[in-house]
Amino acid sequence: MTEHPTSHEGRQPLAARPQERTRPRQEAPGPADDAAVAAPPHGRPHPGTGPVPAQPGPAAPPDDPDGPRTANAARGASRTARSASATRRAAGAAHGDAQARARTDAEPERPATCGAPGGGAPAGAAARVPAQSDAPAGDGATGGGPAGSGPAGGGGAGGGGTAASAGVPQDPVGTARREGDRLRFVGAATRRIARGIDLDEIVLGLCRATVPTFADAILVYLRDPLPVGDERPVDPFVLRLRRADRLRLTEDDPGDLGLLPAGTAVAPDVEQSPAAELCEVRPGGHLAEVLRGVRPVFGDSAAARAALPELLGEGPSVPAGHRAILAPLRGRRRVIGAAVFLRRPDRAPFEPNDLLVAAQLATHTALGIDKAVLYGREAYIADELQRTMLPENLPQPTGVRLASRYLPAAETARVGGDWYDAIPLPGSRVALVVGDVMGHSMTSAAIMGQLRTTAQTLAGLDLPPQEVLHHLDEQAQRLGENRMATCLYAVYDPVAHRITIANAGHPPPILLHLGGRAEVLRVPPGAPIGVGGVDFEAVELDAPAGATLLLYTDGLVESRLRDVWTGIEQLRERLAATAQLTGPDHPPPLEALCDDVLDMLGPGDRDDDIALLAARFDGITPSDVAYWFLEPEDAAPGRARRLARRALARWGLEELNDSVELLVSEVVTNAVRYASRPVTLRLLRTDVLRCEVGDDSPQLPRQRRARDTDEGGRGLFLVNRLARRWGATRLSTGKVVWFELPTRS
């Protein structure tokens, strides 16, 4: 019912005064009766509805001659008293109307108070909710009194009357304090919920914020699976118990505000009754009807009594009185779950205004869950995009060991333009690539993916490093304006122990020698990719066995706190210090070295993506390499077979004699037919046996199916059938045809 404003002295509600003025006039007692008004304790005026008439005094004897005069005087005094009383009532009414208008103007909203354990207002609790005229009109929500529950608040379970309507004096100071507590509670609870980023953090924030301040136990059910974005929900759907927290009841109770395992007690008055872990919500069911509503309902309402058994299972019983609240969790125009707040029997029940508190908590939780689901989907897409654009597993070619790291600029930006790659090349060589596209957006990641694919294609053509950068520059210009990137491309030859490097505006690599000395390699910097019209230069350097080459992007060495060259020098010193820990004859492990390099970054040092590629040069020993020159003559195939047989015997690979002799004879025969200079034959023993035949003819061989009457055309067919892998690479001096056979040793 609606609460009537009263005067500041707590007299009769203003709405009742017109009835008092229309009351028939009665004979009033004598003037002395005003002094006989009943006084409350402490001698203060009674905060009631006006003067209470006292019992009339004794009448004069009938035979008294002064009786008529006494009666007339009494009637005059009575009229005077009635006039004075009416004047006082009119003044109080006017003052009360002004007081009510002032409160109405100053208090457009009415806070809702939740009771703390024991019936008082919770310490540190609260939320601003709409005025009482906007309170939800549902089960148990029609009454709306001042804050407080139980003895402290003056209201009983389910009581909808107010203190004023019951004639009980109000405590403005206590009411304001409880309203402030309620505001602080909901404010603190919503802030805790909003701090969560992922789903579990948000649900945990709701549970920890409400137990034990607002409830003694809470259960949170969420849809499984949760809809994402604007996906249309399907019916029926399943609710899964995501988390359940409860208050510790005894010293031996282990569930002190912690996670309750599935199947543990949830209802405060049924401690050992299990809650259902899964609940199917069917259209038209009692639970579906409650969840379709926007407002929470008390557990003892008709709708909740029918819905809670579906949600909690058959074990728990609904607590008696207003000691349970079922609150729907509604996200983007759909139900995403439900929350159940429970109180123990020895605690004051929930009040109608607590429904508004539960509604605010449920609203903030549902919005947070919606955002967390969207964030999780975006993070998944970003991770998948980055994973597909970077090598999932680095190759481990013979003669070199590799390790890598990638860190995005921030957790909220999981994709960027940095990339690294390792591409095996013919002759047991390997191409090492690291690049950085300008920006940290999806566009940068897409450009990075195209440049990486282009670099892989160019590497397969076995082009020199400077030509690879030239073609990457042309590709970046075709992608559009301002498509800038830096890139460093290096080719390592484990047989010659040499490395060829070309740079396009990228930070120089650092070479860590076996003895612990670290040096910044002097590589011509070049212009970034995308500038256009710039020539790139390559340098060839020694790559001794046991040395480690570190390729990186500028995010590792540049930040707001230092320039790029200061960062490069600090990185060089860090590598040298790390190498000293393992001694001069033992290089540091690659994985540990990468982690140690990243540890040099402070909390505020990372402003950009970081890509890191480390290569340990082991090389191939000369004893595992056989190399010959063959004159382009008819006797060359026979000589090649004899040389190959001797090398296989030295390596203990006699079981490959037949296959190697046949394939070497076919490939050398083709080379001698078109070559004008000596033909080269090289055998490499690693985890496979690799054979390479080079000549000065630029024409690559093509496999074709020979007819029965053809004299040739079957050599490459045999190579394709017997070799595990084979191919042909065009060089600046001609071409190389190679094949590989697995070794059984």
From TrEMBL:
Residues 400-617 form the PPM-type phosphatase domain. Residues 28-47, 68-97, 123-139 have a biased composition (Low complexity). Residues 48-62 have a biased composition (Pro residues). Residues 1-11, 98-110 have a biased composition (Basic and acidic residues). CDD domains: HATPase_RsbW-like. Transmembrane segments: none annotated. InterPro entries: Bact_Sigma-Reg (IPR052016), GAF-like_dom_sf (IPR029016), HATPase_C_sf (IPR036890), HATPase_dom (IPR003594), PPM-type-like_dom_sf (IPR036457), PPM-type_phosphatase-like_dom (IPR001932). It comes from the Bacteria. Residues 1-179 are annotated as: Disordered. It is an enzyme of class 3 (hydrolase). It catalyses: O-phospho-L-seryl-[protein] + H2O = L-seryl-[protein] + phosphate. Its EC number is 3.1.3.16. GO terms for molecular function: ATP binding; kinase activity; metal ion binding; protein serine/threonine phosphatase activity. Keywords: ATP-binding, Hydrolase, Kinase, Magnesium, Manganese, Metal-binding, Nucleotide-binding, Phosphoprotein, Protein phosphatase, Transferase. Primarily acts as an independent SigF regulator that is sensitive to the osmosensory signal, mediating the cross talk of PknD with the SigF regulon. Possesses both phosphatase and kinase activities. The kinase domain functions as a classic anti-sigma factor-like kinase to phosphorylate the anti-anti-sigma factor domain at the canonical regulatory site, and the phosphatase domain antagonizes this activity. This is protein-serine/threonine phosphatase. It comes from Streptomyces thermolilacinus SPC6.
